[in-house]
UniProtKB/TrEMBL annotation:
Residues 27-46 bind DNA. It holds the Pfam family TetR_N. This is TetR/AcrR family transcriptional regulator C-terminal domain-containing protein. It comes from Nocardia fusca. SUPFAM superfamilies: Homeodomain-like, Tetracyclin repressor-like, C-terminal domain. InterPro entries: Homeodomain-like_sf, HTH-type_TetR-like_transc_reg, HTH_TetR, Repressor_TetR_C, Tet_transcr_reg_TetR, Tet_transcr_reg_TetR-rel_C_sf. Residues 4-64 form the HTH tetR-type domain. Keywords: DNA-binding, Repressor, Transcription, Transcription regulation.
């Protein structure tokens, strides 16, 4: 193992690089330069970019687990899943492209995976079968990942080009017709209201599995 550098230092530096420059700039070469080491030194700890992303996702998920541990178990599974979704979104938003690092990753710490046990216990106690409980966690997680990816992709684009998502410009571009499409565009909201509303729709659908 390369002396003078730890896996924790690598993950910390990788997250800093991610925050400053985004996912596309996150390379082993760029990370090695940031740590002032040769790229081969990193391969003692992470064999490739995917393994690096695994470690980064594990770090973020530890933060999620720690945050959720402070939330008392609710009497209603919906409250618990809403809290889970909100904490997950909050932690993803802590880092630029935070949700993207979870795509295709595999957690590197068994304790992070074991944390799922308590959620499966809550959901099965509420009446879900084990497959339904597992699907519930997967669906809520997938919703949050997708929502935050879109949320974070739109934010820098808007800063670089304020007119990119102009509704007036969009209406003019669409031309005649498609009045419902135009109206729906003007109804669109972002951030917390949209997240909470769409999460509610998802939880309503999951709740129907109990009847």
């Amino acid at each position: 193992m390369a002396k003078g550098i730890t896996r924790e230092q690598i993950v910390t530096a990788a997250l800093e690089l991610l925050d400053e420059q985004g996912m596309d700039a996150l390379t082993v070469r760029a990370l090695a330069s940031r740590l002032d080491v040769k790229a081969p030194a990193l391969y003692w700890h992470v064999r490739n970019k995917q393994e690096l992303l695994d470690e980064m996702a594990t770090f973020v998920m530890r933060c999620v687990t720690d945050a959720l541990a402070t939330i008392p178990r609710g009497g209603d599974w919906r409250d618990d899943m809403a809290a889970y979704a909100c904490v997950l979104r909050s932690e993803y938003l802590t880092h630029r492209d935070g949700a993207r690092i979870f795509s295709g990753t595999r957690f590197a710490d068994p304790e992070v995976v074991k944390a799922k046990e308590s959620w499966l216990e809550r959901l099965t106690a509420a009446g879900f079968s084990l497959p339904e409980a597992d699907d519930t966690l997967d669906l809520v997680t997938a919703f949050v990942v997708g929502f935050v990816i879109e949320e974070q992709e739109r934010s820098p684009s808007t800063g670089a080009d304020p007119a990119r998502y102009s509704l007036a410009g969009r209406d003019a571009w669409l031309g005649e017709g498609a009045e419902l499409v135009k109206a729906a565009g003007h109804l669109r909201d972002d951030g917390d209201p949209r997240f909470e509303r769409q999460l509610g729709v998802l939880l309503d659908g999951l709740a129907s599995r109990l009847h």
